[in-house]
Amino acid sequence: MQGHGRCLKLFLAFALLLLQYAQGGEVDHSQRDTNVPRRCIEKERQALLAFKHGLVDEDNSLSSWGSEAQKQDCCRWIGVYCSYQTGHVIGLDLSFEVVFDNLQGTMISPKLFELQHLQHLDLTAINFNGSQFPNFIGSLTNLRYLDLSWTNFGGKFPSQVGNLTNLVYLDLSVNSFTNVENLNWLPPLLSLRYLDLSSVNLSNAFDWLEAVNKLPELTNLTLRYCDLPPPILSTLSYINFSQSLASADLSGNDLSTSSIFLWLSNYNASLVYLDLSANQLVGSIPDVLGNMSSLTHLDLQSNQFEGGVPHSFARLCSLQYLGLSSNNLSGQLSKFVQILLSTCAQNSLEMLDLGNNQLAGSLPDLTNLSSLESLTISYNQLSGGIPESIGLMSKLEYIDFRMNSLEGIPESIGLMSKLVYIDFSMNSLEGVISKTHFSKLSKLRYLGLSSNKLVLDIHADWIPPFQLGSIHLRSCKMGPDFPKWLQTQKEFSHLDISDAGISDSFPSWFWSLCRNVTFMNLTSNQIRGTFANLTLEFSDFPTLLLSSNKLEGPIPSFLSTTKHLDLSYNKLSGSISFLCSSAAINLGFLDLSNNNVSGQVPDCLTHLESLVMLDLSNNALSGKIPTTIGSMFRIETLKLRSNRFVGQLPSSLKNCTSLVVIDVGDNKLSGPIPEWLGVSLKKLVILMLSSNHFNGSLPSQLCHLTHIQILDFSMNIISGSIPKCLTNLTTLAQKGNPSLNISHSYIISNINWGDDYDDDATFMWKGGMQTYKSTLGLVKRIDMSSNKLTGDIPSEITHLVGLVSLNLSRNQLTGQITPEIGNLQSLDSLDLSQNHIDGRIPTSLARIDRLGFLDLSYNNLFGKIPVGTQLQGFDPSFYAGNLQLCGPPLKKMCVDEVEKGPSGQTDFINQGDKDELITLGFYISMGLGFAAGFWGVCGTLIFSRSWRYAYLKFLNGLNDWLFVRIALLKRQLKGA
Ligand SMILES: *[C@@H]1O[C@H](CO)[C@@H](O)[C@H](O)[C@H]1NC(C)=O
Ligand SMILES: *[C@@H]1O[C@H](CO)[C@@H](O)[C@H](O)[C@H]1NC(C)=O
Ligand SMILES: *[C@@H]1O[C@H](CO)[C@@H](O)[C@H](O)[C@H]1NC(C)=O
């Protein structure tokens, strides 16, 4: 299968050659033959110079164009083609080696109009920055070939191209035109063979099919992501249509009607290439496709097809590519394959993509698909073993079986000498992988066996036959020694050997292999030892994950040349002066938590301008928080919990206006709670200042934190009253939360790519320290316990209906519990113990049916405990110390047993909202990590398209990438 893009370029070159014959002239080759006298028509030379004037040519690609004496002859200029006979410019092609954005257009000079003999115009990928498309193009009536794709022209769609009746080739794809009203300009182009209007918005062009049908010569039609309206049935039977349509690409249009197949069946004899992917087609895969006997490429991915392949496919004898991934296909895979095997396609099929469906059963013998090079059945429900016969499929280069429940790998895999890519990750594979499994895999570049139950049993002297570029062996046991065979792999950029049972130190050769890595994950092993005096420079600012090992000693400065560094849960010690290295300028994510680093944080942080996340929690750092922390202007998460920091929060922190999370709990910080927290840091979602020596009263500015979800001031010496302006905390005043987690993404400016991460937070929850990550977005809590707060609990607090936890215990609060307390319908935990609160327990409290924890002990409450679902269920100790409280669950009976709450006993049944999300969410998702997130979402995007597209054929990959982006953007805009 040829890459579409490459074909295009070839076609283009030929088209130029063809031009000379059409013209009866000859393309000027005198650039090589210097004896031929030059003819360049002055008016046209001036036009070309004017055209160049409208371009920004930073790389000087048009250096041969100029007015200097030796550049007089415009026929010698690069990209300019003249007729040998007449000397007129007949071709202008600036698509040569266009690298993105190296040629920009400010405007297209109207003088180009002078090139009246122009037959071929190609300005592909010159960025005209949304400028208006030139009107005069409609008068260059000799044009046969017009390619203005990816030129970012804007304004009204140039329907004057309809005047160019000689056009054979027209590509206006990927521009920024406004909506097109109709395509009635198209039918006059009677010679048109090739039409590409991809990403042009045709949602109002209801005549698109009618217009296309009137082009008798059309062979290639490409209308990707055009928002096509449904085809109008009456036009389907139009007589004058081309009989020769060979290629139709209508992908990404949300088409849902099957009448599109009715239309396509007009081209049964001629269609070779059909792409209907990323539409909304439903039902069974239509039988009529089986009549398209010349099809080599059939792409139906990302639709909603059900069932299996129709029997009529037996007639598709030339099919090379069949893409059916991301549909709702179901049934036994073996039945599915049986039909393919009974067809004559069994010898032609090279690529089969069935990923992301609901195919079940075991993997059948596929050896009869004798030409198969690429096989994708990821994200299905396959089980059982992989048949030994797979080793006979000698042409297979690519296998993707990720995310099934497959159980064993046969040794015969090792015979597949063409295999380049193999991904069996996230199955139930068990057993031992030995060197036999790899014996002939000399071409292997991608090895994916992550998240199975495999043991890699390979002798220390094994020399693998391959050089891997990407190694994914998470949870494959290969310890206790460090895998020595890695030493032979000199080209990998991705290495994941996390949770591999390695309890060894880094071998001396290891780090020098990692110079070119972009991603390395060695977490959750028992790797010990120090970095010693390593020096090394990474070439790519990699992601380095080394957490949960036993690394010791100081952190070497070369690690500052990463972009994402996680060293948490080790035994690293010494200072963190490596941060002072100027190389740390690209560091975006740094987690050093749970180590033993000590000393002061050096006051050298001025260059950490990329840092978005800094976690130094649970170390032995001391001294003041340095002032230069305020230069980290991109920082979103700052965690300094559980160290020995002293002094005040530096006021420079108010420059860090992107801050979302601050956790400085469990230190020895002092001074008042700064007012600027509420004034400057408007984006704060989590503010944790607990277990310090903060004093003074709560500044009312805190009420400006409209995004705040967790406010924790517990265990300080804060006095005064609770501000009444709490109602302004709008996020707390809303129930639920649109997002489960609190996630960030960052792009490192210098290297133009970044990462994502989800915040976690650790705090006291129902009597124990808990860490939340995947559901952190749902946690809404206020904790002001163990301070010296006085006065009433302001009744305004009952407006914070989103609160899940409220802890005001261990203060000196007085007054009564407000009767509206029952408004806090989301409350899961309420602790008001050890205050001086008096009065009765409001009956409305019994209406909070989510309440799972309640502590009212040691106050001055009296009267009967209201009767409700839970209130009687709590342990009596949570009511203790209120000498005049009575009724169940306390043993003390009330004097007047018939006493009733003012509103009777039944009103606790009334609850409006049945949203169970929070409580449920907490329990089911406490253990879920974030790793699955990235590969679950992005991994499918990257690899669910057949790998040969995404990986080998870069040009195509680029297109796909773009269209995926456009599709995502569209979806975002639609708000779906
Ligand atoms: C295109 O053709 C129409 C009618 O034939 C004419 O009126 C119009 O001026 C032409 N447009 C251009 C830009 O040449
Ligand atoms: C037109 O489609 C055919 C069939 O898929 C293909 O071989 C040819 O390269 C296409 N032409 C162009 C210019 O892309
Ligand atoms: C790293 O990349 C450079 C340049 O691409 C190459 O010459 C070198 O061999 C690579 N080194 C390693 C260890 O992969």
Automatic annotation (TrEMBL):
Show where the Leucine-rich repeat-containing N-terminal plant-type domain sits: 43-83
Where do the TM regions start and end? 920-943
What does UniProt give as the signal peptide span?
1-24
GO-annotated cellular components: plasma membrane
Q: What is its main location?
A: membrane
The alphabetized UniProt keywords are:
Cell membrane, Glycoprotein, Leucine-rich repeat, Membrane, Receptor, Repeat, Signal, Transmembrane, Transmembrane helix
**Record has Membrane as a keyword:** yes
**Membrane topology label:** Single-pass type I membrane protein
Q: In which compartments does the protein localize?
A: Cell membrane
For this protein, the record's InterPro entries field holds:
Leu-rich_rpt (IPR001611), Leu-rich_rpt_typical-subtyp (IPR003591), LRR_dom_sf (IPR032675), LRR_N_plant-typ (IPR013210), LRR_R13L4/SHOC2-like (IPR055414), RLP23-like (IPR046956)
This protein's record includes keyword Transmembrane: yes
Q: Which Pfam families match?
A: LRR_1, LRR_14, LRR_8, LRRNT_2
**Where does the record place the Disease resistance R13L4/SHOC-2-like LRR domain?**
111-328
Query: What SUPFAM superfamilies does the annotation carry?
Result: L domain-like, RNI-like
Similarity section: Belongs to the RLP family.
Would you tell me the protein name for this molecule? Probable LRR receptor-like serine/threonine-protein kinase At4g36180
Q: Which organism encodes this protein?
A: Prunus avium (Cherry)
